[in-house]
Amino acid sequence: MDLRRLKTFVTIAELGTVSKAAVHLRIGQPALSRQISDLQQELELRLFDRVGRRLVLTAQGEQLLVDCRRVLIDLNSVHERAAALRRGDSGRLKVLAPPHTIESVLSGFLPRYAESFPQVHVELTEALGPEQPALLERGEAHVGIRIDPGDDPRLETRVLQSADVLAVSAATVELGKSGVITIERLISYPLLLPSGYSVRRLFEAACRLAKVHPKVMLESRASHTLLTLAEAGQGVAIVPSLQRTDRYKVRVARITHGGKPIRERVAVQWDRRRPLPPYALTFCEHLARYMHTVFPVTKPTKTNRSVGLRAR
């Protein structure tokens, strides 16, 4: 079986049209159409139905797509393993990370890493935790750094550190005592919540356990928006201890429930089926040591000051 036909079939199935697939694969449309026709004749199956300008998978095509993707992944793994054996300590390393991790951790780590491994070119891609498994599985990155990695059997997980869920308010706000606030007390404030981040899921899970309902003033994917509003006294922002807050005049408290901090692992993950090149494993080891020295990036505020924003 011609592997080019399988790749063409998968690409058209994902993009929906021959024209888009032709641009993506840099192959003429007639050639792509012939490859699909030849594949259908070889398999004696109709793989697509045409609906308007789009090609829609038949029931048989949907089932075959899963197998074809697996074949291509396995083939790519063979090439990657051979390349890893050849490269040693030099090559390209593709890393996924949320924006706050890039700002708070990788901005300081990467220059140090580059001094020790100048032949490794690190490429960063912003990706929130829930987005990362699919990107890793498709081979679009070597490793992903995230909070609350879960237990995905497809992924190898190395824990780096633990991150607390923090409440951040204006500096004039008396937010808890000794840098700690219970979730029951916190929900009396108007809250500024992150959207799409793992810390949001952790916070909502804690609310469900505590049987409380937060008053949400704003949701945003931009942590700077949340922190700016918190600094201005317009609510209390919920962020992980991985997030830098030193550029803002704010008060920080660790959120607890049942006397324990709301905490989750920070980990680096990769696809089990894809052997990491040696320099990628070295990257993970050095990152773990670096994070041990800088964590937590943000610590609770210890002193109490006058009240500026009151619970509602």
Can you offer a commentary on this structure?
Helix 1 crosses helix 2, helix 1 crosses helix 3 (29-43) and helix 1 (3-15) crosses helix 4. Strands 3, 4, 5, 6, 7, 8, 9, 10, 11, 12 and 13 form an eleven-stranded mixed sheet that branches. A hairpin with a 2-residue loop joins strand 11 and strand 12 (260-261). The chain has three domains: 3-85, Arc Repressor Mutant, subunit A, CATH 1.10.10.10; 87-160 and 265-294, Periplasmic binding protein-like II (D-Maltodextrin-Binding Protein, domain 2, 3-Layer(aba) Sandwich); 163-263, D-Maltodextrin-Binding Protein, domain 2, CATH 3.40.190. It contains ten helices and 13 strands. By secondary structure, it is of the alpha/beta class.
Looking at this protein, list some descriptive labels:
312 residues, alpha/beta, Arc Repressor Mutant, subunit A, D-Maltodextrin-Binding Protein, domain 2, two-stranded antiparallel ribbon, 10 helices, 13 strands
